[in-house]
Design goal:
heterotrimer, A alpha/beta, B mainly alpha, C mainly alpha, A: alpha/beta, D-Maltodextrin-Binding Protein, domain 2, four-stranded mixed sheet, C: MetI-like fold, 15 helices
């Protein structure tokens, strides 16, 4: 379609602009207009707008036009804009989706801006950037470090007479603790969501140092004999559900999409909650200051590898059709390295990746932020390397196979774990082979 | 004057013919009157529709571009897509129950409110209220709260000794909460019925009373036939809207189709294929299949309409 | 007025005995009371969402989720309204209101007036190709918007209309199929006698439309205006796609940006602004429904 032609033209223009250093000077006196889009809730909108205002104050030649939405709307709008060749310059992007956008040539590699020093990475560990690399090039600039976590209500665990488990705890440990919480307190051990595909991938990280997908992204990354690990995991979830330690699937599904404010960890109907580490701030905020939470690692398979890895919470990306990629990169640099900007945002998008910024924020952290920083600090010494971004078919597999045909039917009792896992293998391989 | 009441036709009768010659064809005036629509249609709607039709025969991926693939999309949806058929069955179930329920509620309440009693203005506003809160985030939160384990519905059923259920998470019941929501938001067809009732000349009722007709006779002989154009309209529109239902499900089940795809309505699945996995070619193919089905059903209803819809004029469309 | 003669009344003690004043009065009163009890009870179920919304909009953060079913808050928090009104950054809900009024107001005006004109053409005039055009018009209702978004966006983008109200308003110059069809049905319910009289008096089609048909269409035009206003008011998809700058956001769009499942949401403010966003819609309804009541029945045109 015309889109492809246009794409070429834009690529060409961008290349020319990058090769000829003189051309950048053209726009020096004029105002540069950057468009920028992100998703989030009101707090994030307010903070991000404040950072933009600050940037505009310091760079009067830049005008930033921003668009903010919720998660669903953000992606609907971006897809439409991509089809129209009209993407914003700076896009808040997501780890699960970036591979597909890069493969389809929608984003600009950021390495040139790092080489030229526009984006300063001197205070940033390579591990923090790794998640944004696709095929060796950096396309997504990490907005904060994140990791999967079990948020633990410390007081409830104490009430149940349970000690905080060690960081390298296993699912067997979890089972014992979960049953004890149920027994002692009569509440759920954990608020649910243990059936997400993160746990499928996590199973193979911890049991076998493998990943759900192979390196080429055209097949599964574990053998048929290893299917048994996920069968065991699913059966564990089912057993704990039957024992009343995990909410049944009816309940979980009836409650999905509800806000953090209504999470069982907040309402004290569960002692733990599974989620991403940047969620704690919202959880604690909703639960009230008098409560005490910590973030803990996700259990491993017995004797296996650590489950947690450090994941970029979200990215800034620059779209291929940006007219001012360098100005966009400057803004990303400011967003990442400016202490002033980060003092406005206070790690709302995850723990800042710049060590200088982290240090500057340390004295100002509230207990929730402190707990999040502590957790990521601990995970830095106990983690698995981040896996390459999911293959393009993952979105399809996750929503149309994994959830719809495999895990939910299993949890509703329509098939056995063996059948479910075999079906997953069969259907996923078809989609991956395409 | 009274003769028009007496001349109300029985079902199926074609109307009078006498005025016909005077109202012959007038192409100029006709096209002049519909020109705003024609212009807007060709300027804004025609191209996107044709494009989406063309895309149905491609593998158009929003980020990647497209290749012509003939009928592959159709083969895939009919033979190789489990979720497609789940979405068909969810949609059919919804249409079969929600549409009649909604129409019956709307007509019944419109009849009730078509009076000059005191306070009727307030009642009208009240019955329109659920439709106004529409499909906002607030409604989603409220609807879930109503069907929560500790919610209103379980509290009421609990009085009769029913155990509590997670309605929105139960594969047998989740769709019923959405059907109920649709039935409860009958405000728009109700207002259209009301406007239709208002259009029936009161003299007809008066003269019928003089002739000694009772209420039921009046309803059957006057109200119902004169209301048929509006009933017809509401039926067609609710049918179309039923097949296209999207927003409520999108907001209340978070667009997931859960549990077990029992609320995966067709339009929702079209959206998911188009915008979640970017397979817009496939989504377009699904959309056009739906268009064909709705068009066929609508055509059938139109065909039958000559047997039961009473028009004052015989200008056929 | 037209409701059925109550068969129950036959079994009332008065029935048949004293046919003059007291029984009449009694029967009517009984029916009125029954009516109000029945309709009033149903009203409660209908008003529940509004009551719940306004109740929740006054609740503090601790109450919203813990006392979800309670309609009346323990502690009244008016600050939800004040804080919610402040909006995002320096853009308050005043801006969103203004945009919504513009979109819904102009949009309704265009839609309803164009629809009435087009409907007259379809309902009253015979011309070649009418069935085809009408069928095509109905077809536009049957194609899910989800697959038209992208071609439409590309088209408007080529026209350079992104971030303006043109893509939202200009397509309405031709009316909307739903309203055209609706008004057609009503026109076809209007008897021809007056048209004929007007024709004899030398009126053209335009004259018939404006002088004879339009006045009789009042109830349906009002109904169309109520719907059109509300549907435009709550439409978020078109504004989402075509309005980029938050200064142009409408209320429906702004309300959606409040919350994100992973972040903290101030639900009190969401509910407060949701409740406030209903006020204009309701006012429009209450204002216009007066005209709904006096329909054609009282204008006596038919006589």
């Amino acid at each position: 379609m015309m889109k492809t032609k246009k794409g070429w033209l834009i690529t060409l223009l961008v290349l020319v602009a990058m090769i000829l250093p003189g051309t950048a000077a053209l726009g020096q006196d004029e105002t540069v207009e950057l468009r920028m889009a992100w998703w989030g809730s009101q707090t994030r909108h307010d903070q991000t707008i404040a950072v933009i205002e600050l940037y505009k104050e310091q760079n009067p030649n830049v005008e930033i036009i921003y668009e903010f939405s919720n998660w669903d709307d953000h992606w609907t709008k971006l897809a439409t804009q991509a089809a129209g060749g009209d993407l914003p310059d700076i896009i808040q992007h997501d780890y699960q989706r970036i591979q597909e956008w890069v493969t389809n040539d929608q984003l600009l590699p950021l390495d040139p801006f790092i080489e030229s020093g526009v984006i300063d990475v001197s205070n940033i560990a390579e591990a923090s950037l790794a998640g944004g690399r696709v095929n060796g090039q950096l396309y997504g600039f990490n907005l904060g470090n994140n990791s999967e976590t079990f948020i633990i209500d410390v007081d409830l665990l104490e009430q149940a007479g349970i000690e905080i488990p060690p960081i390298d705890w296993t699912w067997d440990d979890f089972e014992a603790i979960a049953l004890k919480i149920q027994e002692e307190l009569g509440i759920y051990a954990i608020g649910g969501n243990l059936h997400y595909s993160e746990h499928w991938k996590g199973t193979y990280i911890t049991c076998c140092d493998a990943y759900a997908y192979n390196a080429e992204g055209d097949g599964l990354g574990y053998t048929e004999e290893q299917d048994q690990y996920f069968v065991d995991y699913l059966n564990l979830i089912k057993d704990l559900t039957d024992a009343g330690a995990i909410p049944p699937i009816e309940e979980t599904i009836a409650r999905t999409g509800l806000s953090v404010e209504d999470a069982y960890i907040v309402t004290q109907q569960a002692a733990m909650e599974y989620g991403w580490s940047n969620m704690l701030v919202a959880v604690w905020n909703a639960a009230g200051e008098d409560r005490t939470f910590i973030e803990h690692s996700v259990p491993s398979m017995a004797g296996g590898y650590p489950r947690n890895y450090i994941k970029p919470s979200m990215f800034w990306s620059i779209s291929k059709n940006s007219d001012h990629p360098e100005e966009a990169a400057k803004f990303i640099d400011f967003f990442t390295n400016s202490v002033e900007a980060n003092e406005i945002m206070m790690a709302e998008r995850g723990v800042p990746i710049s060590s200088a910024v982290r240090e500057a924020l340390l004295p100002q952290l509230n207990p929730a932020q402190q707990a999040m920083f502590d957790f990521l600090g601990a995970i830095e010494d106990y983690n698995s390397p981040i896996r390459p971004p999911d293959p393009v078919a993952h979105g399809d597999i996750n929503s149309n196979v994994y959830l719809a045909q495999v895990v939910e039917p299993f949890l509703y009792g329509q098939m056995s774990a063996e059948e479910a896992v075999a079906l997953l293998r069969q259907e996923a391989e078809i989609l991956l082979a395409q | 004057m009274t003769d028009s009441a007496l001349r109300l036709p029985r079902r199926g009768s074609r109307k009078r013919k006498e005025g016909r010659s005077r109202w012959g064809e007038n192409n100029l005036a006709g096209y002049l009157f519909i020109s705003p629509w024609l212009i807007a249609f060709f300027a804004f709607a025609f191209i996107p529709m044709v494009l989406s039709f063309a895309l149905a025969f491609t593998d158009y991926h929003i980020l990647r571009g497209w290749n012509f693939i003939g009928l592959d999309n159709f083969q895939r949806m009919f033979y190789n897509d489990v979720r497609y058929w789940r979405s068909v069955s969810a949609t059919v179930k919804y249409v079969v129950f929600a549409v009649p329920l909604r129409l019956v509620f709307a007509l019944g309440v419109a009849m009730l409110l078509n009076t000059n009693r005191r306070g009727v203005a307030f009642y009208r506003a009240a019955f329109y209220a659920p439709s106004v809160v529409g499909a906002s985030v607030a409604v989603a939160v409220m609807w879930r709260e109503v069907f929560n384990r500790e919610g209103l519905v379980n509290a009421i059923l609990g009085q009769f000794g029913q155990p509590s259920i997670w309605w929105l998470g139960h594969p047998d019941y989740a769709i019923w909460t959405l059907i109920l929501l649709a039935a409860w938001q009958f405000g728009s067809p109700m207002l259209i019925f009301l406007a239709g009732l208002k259009q029936i000349p009161e003299q007809l009722y008066e003269s019928a009373s003089i002739d000694g007709a009772n209420g039921i006779q009046k309803f059957v002989r006057i109200t119902l036939p004169l209301l048929t154009p509006v009933i017809f309209f509401n039926l067609i529109m609710q049918l179309i809207a039923g097949f296209m239902t999207f927003t409520q499900a999108f907001i209340i089940t978070n667009g997931s189709g859960r549990p077990l795809d029992t609320t995966l309505f067709y339009a929702l699945y079209v959206y998911k294929r188009g915008f979640e996995t970017y397979e817009m070619g496939y989504a377009s193919a699904m959309a056009w299949v739906m268009l064909a089905v709705i068009a066929l059903l609508t055509a059938i209803v139109f065909r039958t309409s000559s047997h039961w819809v009473y028009y004052e004029t015989d200008e056929g469309i | 007025m037209s409701s059925a003669e109550n068969p129950v009344s036959r079994s009332l003690p008065y029935a048949g005995s004293a046919r003059l004043s007291p029984p009449w009065y009694q029967r009517k009163a009984v029916r009125t009371v029954l009516y109000h009890v029945f309709v009033g009870l149903a009203t409660l179920a209908m008003l529940y969402p509004l009551l719940w919304l306004f109740g929740s909009s006054l609740k503090g953060p601790s109450e919203i989720w813990t006392r979800q079913t309670a309609l009346i808050p323990n502690e009244i928090h008016f600050d939800n309204y004040k804080n919610g009104w402040d909006g995002f950054g320096d853009i308050s809900f005043a801006t969103f209101y203004k945009n919504s009024f513009f979109y819904a107001g102009v949009g309704t005006l265009l839609t309803v007036s164009a629809s009435a004109v087009v409907a007259y053409g379809f309902a009253r005039i015979k011309f070649r190709g009418k069935r085809i055009w009408f069928g095509l018009m109905l077809l536009t209702l049957m194609l899910p918007i989800q697959v038209q978004i992208i071609p439409q966006y590309i088209m408007f983008n080529e026209l350079g209309w992104i971030n303006t109200f043109y893509p939202l308003l200009l397509p309405r110059l031709g009316g909307q199929a739903f309203f055209i069809f609706m008004i057609v049905q009503f026109i076809r319910g209007i008897p021809r006698e007056l048209d004929e009289a007007a024709l004899i008096d030398g009126c053209g089609q335009g004259g018939i439309f404006f002088r004879i048909i339009l006045p009789q269409l009042k109830p349906v035009i009002i109904t169309a205006a109520i719907f059109s206003f509300y549907w435009t008011w709550e439409d978020f998809l078109t504004p989402l796609l075509y309005l980029n700058s938050p200064k142009l956001y409408t209320i429906s769009l702004a309300l959606r940006t409040f919350s994100d499942p992973s972040g903290a949401t101030n639900w009190g403010e969401v509910f407060a602004m949701s409740a406030l966003s209903l006020v204009p819609v309701f006012l429009i309804f209450v204002f216009f429904q007066r005209y709904l009541v006096q329909g054609i029945a009282t204008t006596g045109l038919k006589g």
